[in-house]
Amino acid sequence: MSTEVRVPTLGESVTEATVATWFKQPGDAVAVDEMLCELETDKVTVEVPSPVAGTLSEIVAAEGDTVGVDALLAQISEGEAASTKSDAPKADAKAEKAPEKVDQVDDSYKNDAAKTDSNRSDTEDAPSAKKLMAENNLSSDDVKGTGKDGRVMKGDVLDALSKPKDAPKAAPAAPRSSDQADREERVKMTRLRQTIARRLKEAQNTAAMLTTYNEVDMTAVMDLRNEYKDLFLKKHGVKLGFMSFFTKACVHALHEVPEVNAEIDGDHVVYKNYVNMGIAAGTPTGLVVPVINDADQMSFAAIEKAIAEKGAKARDGKLSMAEMQGGTFTISNGGVYGSLMSSPILNPPQSGILGMHTIQDRPMAINGQVVIRPMMYLALSYDHRIVDGKGAVTFLVRVKEALEDPRRLLMDL
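and the corresponding structure tokens:
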């Protein structure tokens, strides 16, 4: 009996995907729910499990093929075991001549190591981990697996990538080649990277994008955070970071300048009476923007918990399509990478994005005296088609005021 493997539902408004990696080949035995392949969509990677146990008899959609929802991926013959592969080693073992006794004695000290290697070789790493290791030229030996029997999980690979690598040993200089191709590597862009490139270019082509700048003295926020961070962690179980302050400040400013929270739909402007805050996050596979719905109704603790949860999912590649849709405004924190100043690009169809940057001690003139203060540059990129310069500057000033005197957030000033 043959069972069809088809493309699952990919998410709202997503109609096609690219076959990224096949983990099994025709003739391989598969178990129920064992991963067969991975599909890449515009936003997420989707793993396709086997619906039945049997033998993969045919692959219909090869790696690199574009497939639609419910398209046929492969055929599985139910109940057929891959006997050829499992029996072959036994036959070879019987045919081999037994080694001399003296060799058995000499090699006996290797038994324990051989058993360990055998157990590790029988362990199947997570498909998403294997794909990520291949993309970053890593092997299972380079990653410490935390799964069952040392199985390497995707989180293990991400941990390995986040750690500084040892300096490579100097290798003998290879002769320079006259062929330019020998010094280049051509790698096909993932669907996520293609989508990022396309959407960023669309934002530049369709929106009348402009950026305005200001700077904020972070003294008050840092003092407040240092004073309450231990109590906050003890009560709410999550750390008090800067992002909740910036989210609250932006919500406050969006209420006063609603056009920054609006979007253009044809010849209409759609004003949103709610704030779904997008928080841009860098991952090993590219930039993603998880969305915190109804951030304007949330407390500091609820915002911090949501950011921590969505950030962990983003790093592990487990964000769903629904968690990245419906944003009305975005915050991008380039400061975590050391950026001093930049001009963020809009996330269509949104009309505004706030760029945060690194905090730097700088001399400031305050009340006629020069003092050292922790300063951050802020950048607001906006769609000038619906947001005037006055509105953009007002928005950024309100964010600055709220951060320099957080009590304004409590008093709604």
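(Above: one complete record from the training split.) The longest helix spans residues 219-236.
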